[in-house]
Amino acid sequence: MKIGIVCPYSWDVPGGVQFHIRDLAEHLIGLGHTVSVLAPADDETPLPPYVVSAGRAVPVPYNGSVARLNFGFLSAARVRRWLHDGTFDVIHIHEPTSPSLGLLACWSAQGPIVATFHTSNPRSRAMIAAYPILQPALEKISARIAVSEYARRTLVEHLGGDAVVIPNGVDVGFFAKAEPKAEWQGQTLGFIGRIDEPRKGLPVLMKALPAILAARPETRLLVAGRGDEEEAVASLPKELRGRVEFLGMVSDEDKARLLRSVDVYVAPNTGGESFGIILVEALSAGAPVLASDLDAFAQVLDQGAAGDLFANEDADALAAAAIRLLGDPERRAGLRERGEAHVRRFDWATVGADILSVYETVTDGAASVAADERSGLRARFGLARD
Amino acid sequence: MTVTLIIWIAVALVVIGVYLSWTAGRLDRLHSRIDASRAALDAQLLRRASVTQELATSGVLDPAASIVLYEAAHAARQAEEDHREVAESELSTALRAVFGEPAQVEAVKEVPGGEDAATELAAAVRRVPMARRFHNDSVRAARALRRHRTVRLFRLAGHAPFPLAFEMDDAPPVALADRPGT
């Protein structure tokens, strides 16, 4: 099958959506499909052979933060050329509502279009204002995928219609086979994420740490992620700061080894998560997980069966749950076992097969993808040249 | 004075014409999307019924289960258009009754050729809800546009029948589709 994938965010900036697309493309290529990914990228960035650059993304303030997006005449022309050259059986657009390549591709393509909605933003004013513009483009999507039940719900509320839920994939074997590191073992809590992003929840964990250390003084907290380390421990009493170790940015291998080593992986995120891929990675590595009870997290953890949940933003609840888990090796072993069984549904083998079923369902009884000539004025008056 | 007025009227007419043509194009595209998604749904339903019938006649299952599945699959394939939703829902119920236990699926897999049959059936019961969701989504989009004032006033939908959603019970047997969410 010839598959075209559209990535809305810069290929050179690491992010969840980009990693998902990279893994999906590599998985599909491994199965023998022809895959081409259209992504914004600087011309100098080295790209994998299956990625086609759509030009440099422009940083614009969007949705409360600065996003790097692609739009304008030039990008639209590149999208059309990619569609024309690719002769795809199906195109898979990620984040079709972001004002970037996703939306452009939606505008200028016709035929079987699959779209994945990653974010579950609360209804924004911009979205409401853009609704009449978005709707004609979104109407062309033959199949919608939401990454979680939560994302599906927001999608249904905001845009109407329906979607199938296919979770993000994880290479379970990579994490399960990682070698634990001795220096990261022994009464350790793990945290991975941006230190200076409050929504990742490190402040909540810092608030809970004194109570955890009072009950179990041997505990160490390992923090991997970029950000200001001094500022992060500022709220902690001086004598306790030594119990926190910062590992900085870690490679994928070290991340897997860290997750294999820690006694409890803590995810104190306070919001803004629509899926929680890190939890799946932790489960794959066999780490017992303690996470805040966000909708998305509760769903990944099977409502608490595959990992412990605590009340969001409640440092005392976090401390109590962490102390209980650290002192109960049997419970940890139980969580580990259930987690490993539960996580198989997130493996690329399963997720990839589901996504392929979607492709096959929409290509049944439909022509292949082509550039949509109707959106050109010349075409409407029968003046198109080609 | 009159010349400018005429020009303005002409411009307005052209703009309205372009808008109407664009909306008609949108509607046309939606209708072809419905046709495609309905064809895909039919294909998946038919596939599910065929795989079920094959399994029922293969002798892999016990006689009672075979008869139940054969009956349901046969009824689903032969159903008239207005009984289709009921017949297909009954096939879903029958499949859930027979493949409710993982042990039954394992038993099918052990027989020579059973592995393939089980995989095929699992794929079929998984794709029916997908295809149905995609179809109903396209129906909803078309209905939303057809209710629009402009579309009704100018009869842009022509003689195309008002699209209907396909409502049925399509929950797959747990033992065959152990996936979250859908």
From TrEMBL, chain A:
Keywords of the record: Glycosyltransferase, Transferase
Gene Ontology molecular function terms on file: phosphatidylinositol alpha-mannosyltransferase activity
Entry keyword annotation includes Transferase: yes
EC number(s) per entry: 2.4.1.345
Pfam families from the UniProt entry: Glyco_trans_1_4, Glyco_transf_4
Entry-linked InterPro entries: Glyco_trans_4-like_N (IPR028098), Glycosyltransferase_grp1 (IPR050194)
Record CDD domains: GT4_PimA-like
GO biological process, one term: carbohydrate derivative biosynthetic process
Domain of life of the source: Bacteria
Signal peptide residue numbers: none
Location of the Glycosyltransferase subfamily 4-like N-terminal domain: 14-172
PANTHER family documented for this protein: SULFOQUINOVOSYL TRANSFERASE SQD2 (PTHR45947:SF3)
Name of the protein in its database record: Glycosyltransferase
UniProt organism field: Streptomyces microflavus DSM 40593
TrEMBL record, chain B:
Membrane-spanning segments: 6-24
Domain of life: Bacteria
Keyword terms, alphabetized: Membrane, Transmembrane, Transmembrane helix
InterPro entries the record matches: LemA-like_dom_sf
Protein name: Membrane protein
Naturally occurring in which organism (per UniProt): Streptomyces microflavus
Lineage: Bacteria, Bacillati, Actinomycetota, Actinomycetes, Kitasatosporales
